[in-house]
Amino acid sequence: MQAVVLDRFGGIEELHLRSIAVPQVGDHDVLIEVQAAGVGSWDATEREGGYDGVFGVASAFPYVLGWDGAGVVAQVGDAVQDFVPGDRVYAASTPVPRGGFYARFAVVPEAHVSPVPAGLPIEEAGALAWDAVTAQSGVDLLNPAEGSTVIVFGASGGIGHLALQFARLRGARTIAVASGHDGIELSRELGADLAFDGRVDDIEAAVRNFAPDGADAALITAGGAGALAALRGVKPSGRVAVPHGVRLDPAVDDARVQYYDGDRRQAALRRVSEAVESGALRLHLAHRFDLDQVREAHRMLAGHHLGKIVLRI
Is pTM, for the whole model, over 0.85? Predict the structure, then answer.
């Protein structure tokens, strides 16, 4: 099969398109003929070796990136019950140990596969899974009450723009700390009660002007000085959720901060699908690239963009 592979970790120039073997299908696996693969913000870190060994599995080359994707079921393992060849599915996988979605075929445990939401284009489905379950899990952890105030820091990014929508589903008032005028506009389109540019505006002052006693909760999707300013905007009794992989200042010692992983089980994916099908959740695609344009996709990762990037396989 054709796949984008790494023969060693490094820069964009290490991404190569060539033929490799189709992954083996175990009893509980689903082999997906991939039509679209998400390009996540974490892919660049992984490409450079930032996740080498962190999952308790030695990295093996050729290494195929890609944590989420969508396509058609090509084959199922003997113990698989919920899927048959021909089903349209999307999934949240991990590139180790058997390879990710930057390929013509990807193998994923049945437990992390779900039918594509009705009416959702396959390219959007391919970029949806991991960002959506990470956003959903973060909002679940915060558990905002109706009418409470939630800061989403990084609200125009892949996880953030979805978290903004999940918080609104809970009836929360949302403060979107976005990037750029286009990020502000996207946040407003998605229903943010307050949206501003965290790189330009005084974050703490803007939050306090909207919520004088401080916000009730915050979801932080990126590090840096802005993240610390957002933390200061949360009331002492508030809660702060940070996905694992987001690096806050090592000096931060705040009992309100809780790190978490996205829940990618089928039940969580079904909740995502229900939100999409009801019209309450939409994915914003920054750009679509063909598989042989993967280097261009990773260059875009390094710059300003909104939402998610997708590869057409």
Answer: yes
